[in-house]
Design goal:
By secondary structure, the protein is mostly helical. It has two domains: 62 residues, no CATH class; 90 residues, no CATH class. The chain is built from nine helices and five strands; from the N terminus they run H-H-E-H-E-E-H-E-H-H-H-H-E-H. It has a three-stranded antiparallel beta sheet. Strands 4-5 form a two-stranded parallel sheet. It is elongated and about 70 Å long. It comes from Usitatibacter palustris.
Length: 193
C-alpha cells in the first residue's frame, strides 16, 4: 500500500500538468472566422476599432457585435425609429392650433366643405351630389353614403377639423384646433408624395 501511495504522489504533478495543458489547449481555440458576407448581414457600417468609438456607440444606445466589433443592424434600425419618432414629436409640439370654422354638410357650399382640412375636393363634390338627392340626417347617414367617410379615421378627422351634420360633430369627436393643425401637417406631407 505504501508503494502505491508514493507512486500516486510522485506522478500527481505530472497528471495535473497534463490536465492543465489539455484545458488550456481547448480554451485557446479561436472560433471559425466569419466571412465578409456574414459581417455585412450583422453590421451597420464599419468596425468601431477604438475603445472610444465603442463606448460612444454604447452610450448612444447601440448594441455591439463582439465578433465583428460593430454596431448591429437591429440596434441601428431601432435607434433610427426612435430618432424619427422623437423628431416627429418635436415637430408636432411646435404646431399652433388653427381656428376651427364649423362647416355643415347640409348647408355649406362645395368650396366651403373643401376648405375643411381633411376633406378633398372630390369628397366635397360627392357630398353636394348626395345632398341633392336627400339631406344627411346624421353622421351614420353621411358615413354610409360618402365613400371617403366609410373609413372611420377619415370621419373622425373631418369632425375634428370642423365638419358637422346639422350642426353636430361626430359623437365623441368635437372640433379640436390643435389636432386639426396636426392633421393639416400630416395631410400636407401626404399630399406632397
Amino acid at each position: 500500500m505504501r508503494i502505491v501511495i508514493l507512486t500516486v504522489i510522485r506522478f500527481a504533478p505530472v497528471g495535473a500538468l497534463l490536465l492543465i495543458g489539455l484545458v488550456a489547449a481547448g480554451c485557446g481555440k479561436k472560433p471559425a472566422a466569419a466571412g465578409p458576407s456574414e459581417m455585412q448581414t450583422v453590421c451597420e457600417g464599419q468596425p468601431l476599432r477604438t475603445v472610444e468609438r465603442r463606448e460612444q456607440a454604447q452610450q448612444d444606445g447601440y448594441d455591439i457585435d463582439r465578433r465583428f466589433d460593430c454596431i448591429t443592424k437591429e440596434s441601428w434600425a431601432a435607434n433610427q425609429q426612435y430618432r424619427d419618432r422623437a423628431a416627429s414629436t418635436r415637430n408636432m409640439e411646435s404646431v399652433q392650433p388653427v381656428d376651427i370654422v364649423l362647416v355643415d354638410v347640409n348647408t355649406a357650399t362645395q368650396e366651403e366643405i373643401a376648405v375643411v382640412i381633411t376633406v378633398s375636393r372630390e369628397t366635397a363634390a360627392q357630398i353636394i351630389v348626395e345632398r341633392g338627392i336627400r339631406r344627411f340626417k346624421d353622421w351614420p347617414d353621411l358615413t354610409s353614403r360618402i365613400k371617403a367617410f366609410r373609413d372611420p379615421q377619415a370621419a373622425v378627422a373631418a369632425s375634428t377639423c370642423g365638419l358637422t351634420v346639422d350642426g353636430k360633430s361626430l359623437e365623441g369627436v368635437p372640433p379640436n384646433g390643435l389636432m386639426a393643425a396636426r392633421l393639416r401637417e400630416t395631410y400636407r406631407d401626404y399630399n406632397r408624395r
